[in-house]
């Protein structure tokens, strides 16, 4: 019953997922040029996006595309990813774990383990509506590169015998291309790859199904010590993990 209620709440919220039914102005307040410079407006947009303050989700405002492009392409994005992963590395080094067999790290895939920046480069850096057909065509190429710091951390975790568990919003139908892409990008030795079996036309939110998958892991005895994602929906909800790490993503929002 609880699941059904969650599902309906999720479906309701999905009407705004990735800004598909609201205008930009209803998601992100328009800029008042008499009081706010473009630079400050876009900086505030990026801040609010990263800390998850937008009530109905967001799309990148058109006038902020050049800022987001600069952020992604000129090194700050890579530096921020590196800084987040360095904290995860410090955390893991200082852990005392007793249940070695069931110690687990959960990682998201898109914009956490694999980078879709080449796709967003040709899709206005997030300023246009999400196009599932075009995005799936990109995913099917299985050519996304790893986020290098994440790959490096995963290699360390695997060598330390952690259970590395990928949980992704990609549908089960993309399992083969996802495995192919993960391997091509350098990932190996993971314990599980959990895709979204429930993802149909009437999708539930990422937060709801990722929570249910993590609850399943805990039921199977796994202890989730760390969880890394680029969306708040990766790292909130139930069984989120003892410590979560939020990677930057100013390109898109998934509820
Ligand atoms: Mg992601």
Automatic annotation (TrEMBL):
Signal peptide interval: 1-19
Keyword Acetylation: no
InterPro entries: Acid_phosphat_B-like (IPR005519), APS1/VSP (IPR014403), HAD-like_sf (IPR036412), HAD_sf (IPR023214)
Key words, A-Z: Glycoprotein, Signal
Source organism superkingdom: Eukaryota
Keyword Glycoprotein: yes
Transmembrane segments: none
Family listed: Belongs to the APS1/VSP family.
Protein name: Acid phosphatase
Organism listed in the record: Selaginella moellendorffii (Spikemoss)
